[in-house]
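Key result, reporting period 2: structure in, sequence out.
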């Protein structure tokens, strides 16, 4: 057995992905019954955060504690990573001391380089290119609320960003149709799109994407690292608000997801976000905990 990493959803095969989602649902039920298991006793997760986080940090740290292990928060501000120590050196040192590493960073190649030199599993906790842990939670949430997403139609409204790229991978792995509505100039990466061209279509109006959809998702228009583009993006995404009116074009039992944090009145209306008949964002956020516990178990069990 080699060391397994989770840098994108495609690092799992289709059966493995489904088993992680099912295990997440099981772990949630066990937690709700007060039943704990501690497969990570005496184990340590290193958490490298080069960008801010609420959900990801809390879910990994709490998840590790609940499984009997502990987590170390490592920020570039107070490690040598921030002073230019090469990723390859940091990977070799840190991975000799901890049992698993999660990294939130800018360039996806930072994760790839770290993983190449790491003795232990590495998890992508968000890069500029992908956010696969969020998709584990989103898939779990859809399965819990509506059953399998296979054969369904999913609409992504907004930026062709890291979340959108992970939705493209999810469409490939879970066999759903994905319609992406984004303004010209904000399309997803061509190479990522090309891999999934039979499953994914890019359209130019939110209405086209959402018509007949079973699942509608969006995200902020300016991601972390794009703060200086905020004003330009506000103008470019004019008309891309997801609200109750837009949702009237979706299927009657369609649900709405957002990875959060949300900007009410920009990409989503406050009324839709708070409408628990349609919006499942709080379950989606909670499921980060269960999905990542299932993922960490899987990586530990399948690495030597
Ligand atoms: N959705 C998500 O990853 O949230 P955080 O940035 O708070 O971790
Ligand atoms: N696209 C957003 C997701 C935040 C969880 C970002 O990268 O900032």
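The corresponding designed sequence is given below.
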């Amino acid at each position: 057995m080699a060391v397994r990493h989770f840098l994108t959803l495609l690092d799992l095969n289709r059966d493995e992905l489904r088993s992680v989602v099912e295990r997440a649902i099981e772990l949630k039920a066990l937690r709700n019954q007060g039943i704990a298991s501690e497969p990570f006793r005496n184990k340590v997760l290193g958490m490298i955060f080069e960008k801010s986080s609420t959900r990801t940090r809390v879910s990994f740290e709490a998840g590790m504690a609940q499984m009997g292990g502990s987590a170390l928060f490592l920020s570039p501000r107070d490690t040598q990573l921030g002073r230019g120590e090469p990723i390859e050196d940091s990977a070799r040192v840190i991975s000799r001391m901890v049992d698993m590493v999660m990294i939130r960073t800018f360039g996806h190649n930072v994760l790839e380089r770290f993983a190449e030199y790491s003795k232990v599993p590495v998890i992508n906790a968000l890069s500029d290119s992908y956010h696969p842990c969020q998709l584990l939670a989103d898939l779990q949430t859809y399965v819990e609320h509506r059953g399998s997403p296979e054969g369904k139609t999913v609409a992504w409204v907004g930026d062709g960003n890291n979340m959108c790229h992970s939705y493209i991978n999810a469409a490939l792995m879970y066999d759903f149709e994905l319609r992406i509505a984004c303004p010209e100039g904000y399309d997803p990466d061509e190479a990522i799109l090309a891999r999934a061209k039979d499953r994914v279509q890019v359209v130019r109006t939110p209405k086209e994407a959402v018509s007949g959809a079973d699942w509608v998702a969006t995200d902020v228009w300016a991601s972390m690292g794009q703060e200086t583009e905020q004003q330009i993006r506000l103008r470019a995404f004019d008309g891309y608000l997801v609200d109750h009116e837009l949702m009237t074009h979706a299927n009657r039992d369609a649900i709405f997801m957002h990875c959060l944090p949300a900007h009410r009145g920009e990409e989503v209306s406050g009324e839709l976000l708070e409408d628990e008949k349609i919006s499942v964002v709080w379950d989606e956020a909670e499921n980060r905990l269960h999905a990542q516990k299932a993922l960490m178990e899987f990586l530990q069990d399948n690495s030597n």
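Residues 28 and 34 are 10 Å apart (CA to CA). The mean pLDDT is 98. This case is discussed further under Risks and Mitigation.
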